[in-house]
């Protein structure tokens, strides 16, 4: 009897499955809903952090690609932290005594850090510009390989050089390790086709974003599955910790579900928003000057007072005697993935050492000095960046990207980018409102700080939150040093594993 019943049930179920694809879709939706819900619950922060404006022991710079994070790294963080204090996990360098992690890895990296003793900062950019910039940079880096006669030799050369070079290659860093080889292959295919005369003749007037003889047009780029996987809504996924590069095992299923059922994206967006709310600092690429100033006030000042506290400790003296490896930011934002770009064949085999960066913080660094140094640093950085860019784009002339040329892109393409990045659009608006609050707070805070100094002069002990903000760092130095050492080692091991496993794919 029970056998009969089973038979009936399974027949009914089978019929259901066959006759109602809608229903199985529904099942999948329900399944996905559960998956997303579980993730949301597990990622919920344990309450509001009222202390979020105080810099904790470790600073995690969540670097969303193409937001200008590199300038912050080079022109602020480099001047605030010695390279020995940096644990640049994703940039695949091992150094000890980390107080700083700068990474293109997503938020899930925090699971490898002491979460309650880490402060997170990030910069966001208008999604439309971020997509444009991602496209342009992929083309720019890929075009450098066109010095080679064919793709095979380009690939061989880069794999031969990479292990030798001490700098970190763009080709090792997510997301460029996927975007650049893809674009590179495409550029070679188009060049070969041109050589064989297979392509239509070039038109006179041309939109560089739609020049299929030379380079993959922008509208093809944004519609490719790879862009869907890696580029669109990239900031939201990165802040949520759900990128293709996540440390979280369930991230891939969650991402898949959100892609299949876009309504579930709301939940991801809400998590990303609340993460931003909890950050020590959120900058905006567009509002560059103000962002830099806020960064100095909100982060720089605290790093300086933290360093002071540290350098007065004996433990620190011990630590700073440890190995200081030379460091280089992966040239991901300016290019210079490796030695290939600027060189001709005679130079390809030679080792070019990474740019000499300050390995020690200048004594008596102050907030004012920092801001001054920043201005100088950024202008020279921009100059070299644009030189490199035009050198590279020469190889695909007459295609040439510029702000003016962007105006030639049809409105339909722009609208499509906006709709493909609807989560990012909303996250960006949220970041703008956080930015306003920060400005407000910073102004108010400075007022309070002044008042406090006066209070101090008339010898009154009065603790305010702003005072705490400057003197927040006090204890746990020994603990910090030992644990950070351990973290760095763990990260190193993970990195190695991830690297080898990913590179082999
Ligand atoms: C690619 O270029 C290299 C170097 O010029 C050459 O030796 C090789 O035969 C080429 N390979 C193909 C498949 O054309
Ligand atoms: C990430 O995306 C790239 C490009 O689509 C793919 O090759 C890779 O396997 C993906 N990784 C994961 C973990 O899904
Ligand atoms: C390669 O570079 C060297 C010096 O940088 C230069 O003298 C030489 O002409 C270059 N060769 C080619 C083929 O561009
Ligand atoms: C830093 O300041 C101290 C006293 O405030 C001074 O003795 C020292 O020379 C200064 N160092 C530098 C490099 O300016
Ligand atoms: C591309 O445009 C920039 C200005 O927008 C110009 O400086 C550069 O020379 C151009 N490059 C080429 C190869 O035409």
TrEMBL record:
Supply one GO molecular-function term.
Answer: heparan sulfate 6-sulfotransferase activity
Renumbered residue ranges of the record's region Disordered: 310-360
- Topology relative to the membrane: Single-pass membrane protein
Q: What does the UniProt keyword field contain?
A: Glycoprotein, Membrane, Signal, Transferase, Transmembrane, Transmembrane helix
Stretches of Polar residues bias are at 339-360
Q: Which domain of life is it from?
A: Eukaryota
Point out the signal peptide segment.
1-24
Where, per UniProt, does this protein localize?
Membrane
One GO CC term on file: membrane
Question: Mind telling me which PANTHER family this protein's record contains?
Answer: HEPARAN SULFATE 6-O-SULFOTRANSFERASE 3, HEPARAN-SULFATE 6-O-SULFOTRANSFERASE
Q: What is this protein called?
A: Protein-tyrosine sulfotransferase-like isoform X2
Q: Which organism is it from?
A: Ananas comosus
**Organismal lineage:** Eukaryota, Viridiplantae, Streptophyta, Embryophyta, Tracheophyta
């Amino acid at each position: 009897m029970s056998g009969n019943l089973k038979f009936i049930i399974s027949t009914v179920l089978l019929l259901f499955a066959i006759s109602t694809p809608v229903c199985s879709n529904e099942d999948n939706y329900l399944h996905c809903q559960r998956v997303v819900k579980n993730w949301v619950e597990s990622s919920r922060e344990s309450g509001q952090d009222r202390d979020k404006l105080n810099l904790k022991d470790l600073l995690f710079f969540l670097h969303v690609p193409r937001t200008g994070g590199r300038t912050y790294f080079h022109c602020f963080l480099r001047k605030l932290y010695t390279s020995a204090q940096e644990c640049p996990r994703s940039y695949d360098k091992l150094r000890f005594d980390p107080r700083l992690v700068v990474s293109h890895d997503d938020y899930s990296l925090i699971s490898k850090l002491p979460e309650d003793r880490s402060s997170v900062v990030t910069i966001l950019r208008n999604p439309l510009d971020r997509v444009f910039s991602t496209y342009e940079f992929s083309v720019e880096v890929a075009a450098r390989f066109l010095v080679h006669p064919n793709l095979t030799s380009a690939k061989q050369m880069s794999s031969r050089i990479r292990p030798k070079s001490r700098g970190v290659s763009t080709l090792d860093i997510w997301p460029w390790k996927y975007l650049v080889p893809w674009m590179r292959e495409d550029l070679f295919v188009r060049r070969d086709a041109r050589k064989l005369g297979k392509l239509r003749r070039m038109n006179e007037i041309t939109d560089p974003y739609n020049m299929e003889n030379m380079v993959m047009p922008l509208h093809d780029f944004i519609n490719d599955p790879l862009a869907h996987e890696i580029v669109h809504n990239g900031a939201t996924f990165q802040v949520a910790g759900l990128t293709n590069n996540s440390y979280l095992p369930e991230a891939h299923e969650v991402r898949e579900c959100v892609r299949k059922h876009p309504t579930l994206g709301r939940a991801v967006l809400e998590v990303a928003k609340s993460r931003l709310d909890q950050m020590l600092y959120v900058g905006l690429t567009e509002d560059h000057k103000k962002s830099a100033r806020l960064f100095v006030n909100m982060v720089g000042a605290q790093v300086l007072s933290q360093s002071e506290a540290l350098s007065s400790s004996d433990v620190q003296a011990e630590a700073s005697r440890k190995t200081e490896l030379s460091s280089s930011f992966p040239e991901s934002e300016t290019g210079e993935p490796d030695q290939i770009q600027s060189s001709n064949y005679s130079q390809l085999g030679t080792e070019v050492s990474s740019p000499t960066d300050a390995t020690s913080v200048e004594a008596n660094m102050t907030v004012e000095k920092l801001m001054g140094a920043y201005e100088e640093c950024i202008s020279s950085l921009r100059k070299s960046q644009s030189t490199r860019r035009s050198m590279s784009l020469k190889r695909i002339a007459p295609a040439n990207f510029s702000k003016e040329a962007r105006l030639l892109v049809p409105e339909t393409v722009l609208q499509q980018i906006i709709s493909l990045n609807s989560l990012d659009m909303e996250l960006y608006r949220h970041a703008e409102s956080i930015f306003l609050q920060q400005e407000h707070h910073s102004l108010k805070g400075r007022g309070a700080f002044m008042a406090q100094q006066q209070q101090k002069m008339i010898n009154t002990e009065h603790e305010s939150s702003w005072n705490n903000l400057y003197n927040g760092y006090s204890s746990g130095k020994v603990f910090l040093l030992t644990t950070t050492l351990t973290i760095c080692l763990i990260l190193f091991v993970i990195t190695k594993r991830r690297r080898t496993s990913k590179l082999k794919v």
